[in-house]
Design brief:
Radius of gyration: 36 Å
CATH superfamily of the largest domain: Acid Proteases
Strand content: 25-35%
CATH architecture of the largest domain: Beta Barrel
Helix content: 25-40%
Structural class: alpha+beta
Strand order of the largest sheet: 2-3-9-4-8-7
Largest sheet: 6 strands, mixed, barrel
Shape: elongated
Number of strands: 11
Order of helices and strands: HHHHEEEEHEEEEHEHEE
CATH class of the largest domain: Mainly Beta
């Protein structure tokens, strides 16, 4: 009986119509079943059908490789966006004075010592560090556990190592009394409003640094 030689592309299309789970690796029993059905439709020799199946399978694999290449390209483009969402850590050196942590910072591009104060609701900066010539009633402790003083709102350029805030809103206060109690000039307090911008704040006393993880 004469037999028309089936095309490889035709057989590849038949294989490609299988579910995506069976395209890459077709189990042997499925290959055998496919060959038997294919022989019934086209009475060719088993060896020829097997060869055609192998060639067609390779063609399907090539198609999948091209699709996978596109998927990898899309993934490569997405990777920077994923890394961009990863947390960043900023390590800020400090020195300790009478048990207080003074961060080595910059206010308006000038060196400043900022006290790490987890009990302060707001970040405070002195008029001198902010470059203002105003006079305010100094922050002083009250009869209760708190403290009070005159303040005004202002904006400064604030930098903690590589973390930079431009026109950061702060409270301007005279902290001269606080500096006297500590024994060193204090240019400001880092308060909870700034600390809440970070996921984790770690204090490494041995390294003399505070790590801010954002």
């Amino acid at each position: 009986m004469s037999c028309t030689k089936p095309g490889v592309a035709e057989l590849a299309d038949a294989l490609d119509s299988k579910s995506s789970a069976r395209r890459l690796l077709i189990p042997p029993h499925l290959c055998s079943r496919f060959l038997k059905l294919y022989q019934q439709e086209r009475p060719c020799g088993f060896q020829r059908c097997a060869s055609l199946l192998i060639l067609a399978h390779r063609e399907v694999i090539d198609k999948l490789k091209k699709k996978a290449g596109c998927a990898l390209l899309v993934l490569a483009l997405l990777v920077p966006a994923v890394h961009a969402q990863e947390r960043k850590a900023y390590t800020v050196p400090f020195h300790s004075v009478n048990g207080m942590i003074l961060l080595d910072a910059q206010v308006n591009r000038k060196p400043a010592g900022l006290l790490l104060d987890t009990g302060a609701n707001n970040t405070l900066i002195t008029p001198q560090a902010a470059g203002l010539g105003v006079k305010l009633d100094a922050l002083k402790p009250t009869n209760t556990s708190g403290s009070s003083g005159e303040y005004m709102k202002g904006r400064v350029d604030l930098r903690l190592e590589k973390r930079h805030w431009i026109e950061r809103e702060v409270l301007i206060m005279d902290l001269s009394e606080a500096g006297k109690r500590i024994g060193e000039r204090v240019d400001g307090f880092i308060g909870q409003d700034l600390l809440r911008e970070f996921f984790v704040v770690r204090i490494d006393y041995k390294a003399g640094a505070v790590e801010f993880e954002k």
